[in-house]
User: What shape does this take?
Amino acid sequence: MSLPTALRADDIDVSLAGRPVVRGVELTVRPGEFVTLLGANGSGKSTVVRACVGLLPCESGSVHLFDTTLDRYDRWDRIGFVPQRSGAASGVPATVSEVVVSGRLGRRRLFGWPTGSDRRAAGERLAQVGLADRATAAVSQLSGGQQQRVLIARALVGDPDLLVMDEPVAGVDAGSQAALAEVFAGLVADGTAVLLVAHELGPLASLVDRVVLLREGRVAYAGAPTGLPAADAGDSDHHPHGDPAPVRPRGLPSQGPWR
Amino acid sequence: MLQLLDYDFMRRALLAAFLTGLAAPSIGTYLVQRRLALLGDGIGHIALTGVALGLLTGRAPLLTAVLVAVVGALVIELLRTYTGTSGDVALALLFYGGIAGGVLLVGLAGESAASLNAYLFGAITTVSAGDLQIVAGLAGVVLLLAVGLWPQLFAVCQDEEHARVSGVPARAYGLLIAVLAAVTVTVSMRTVGLLLVSALMVVPVATAQQLTRSFRTTFGLAMVLGVAASLAGVVTSFAANTAPGPTIVLIALAGFAVAAPVGALLTRNHEGAVP
Assistant: This one.
């Protein structure tokens, strides 16, 4: 394959508790490309993503991150990950800033404590997700949608080249979703590869270059959002202006440095 | 009051209390963050088997307790990780195995179960100079790792999956936390005893988080509260002629009883100020 890929899954099978959940899935995300993995609940989309970042083993097939096989991959500082979660809180209080700073761990040595530049980066990302004024608040005091935005800031704070997000905007209000769409558009324009898991195209529809639709663990459709079977496009503002064309030619990095 | 420093055994007791009060909440913070507050208790029960093994073989119970507690802690963590056994079931298995093994081995050693009392409830005034060296060495290791590795340990306890995708070997850190908890249990064994050790790991953390919003403040304040309760407990037990271990734990709990309503007020005011 001549073009570089940020993420490539070839014919992967994944089982959960002995039950095959994902079968023969192919998935490619290139630098500067925004790919959405769509599917109903239980279609296996979270499982695919978790296998792609090494949280679940593949029974067969292979996953490459930046053209390196998963078991040899060690540049985790290039990956930003938003796991599917109900919240960002844990058993002990933590501030919003502390949680976001932990997203730069991949860049730090053992016994290396967070530095001023870590905290500055966290402040900038918090401003982008609209939470600049909540940096010193306890995450547990935030609403579900705000906690979700904290997790997005944590994924962005390491300046990732590949951003993998599992239903990141669940519970996020419409205004914030629009602001996030702008942030993601900027990242993609700078060459970041984005893989988004969602159950409908929703508010980020205008960013999507390519859709991979899963049904019962298999790819049911892969291609431009325009070709998506109508029943699977979701309720949404998929055709806001009657012009659902992606913002850029699909399948190709738009421009510039993708590192 | 200063006259208690005239006694060698009291100086050793205060030093042991200080080290325990510092080390126990430091690792306890991570246990609470992982929602494994009772892990220390389970390891305490296992350590009892280690103590009995020491009595049976004529070796120092402190050392056999460390070894058996570390093995037990690793077994819990591996059960949790690889068999999907839930944390509380894994703990229950340890509780019963540890107590049964301890009492059985003590019987084999030809001693009554009563000889375990010093380990179950602590016997801080009988800490020897040799004990103190072991306690100081182990507490030093726990503190160095719990404080020095806090960014990694915080990330693993906060969100294990995210930590793994950041390239942090989360399973190794999970094992490290379990081992450090086991070492801390043994360090605290002589101070508050195996049945109360978990209290010193968890209660100062619970008290601190009534008043704090950040992880770092919680972590630091819990250690301050742990030291305060430990020293105050030893001094009070000397003055009032009470058992040191339970005195320390009750003072720590009194701290929680004071902090909880204050924390509730703080939270309410804070929410009033920032809608």
User: Anything to note?
Assistant: Helices of chain A lie at 45-52, 96-101, 116-128, 144-156, 174-189. The CA atoms of residues 108 and 114 of chain A lie 8 Å apart. The beta strands of chain A are 7-16, 19-29, 34-39, 60-65, 68-69, 79-82, 162-166, 193-198, 210-215, 218-223.
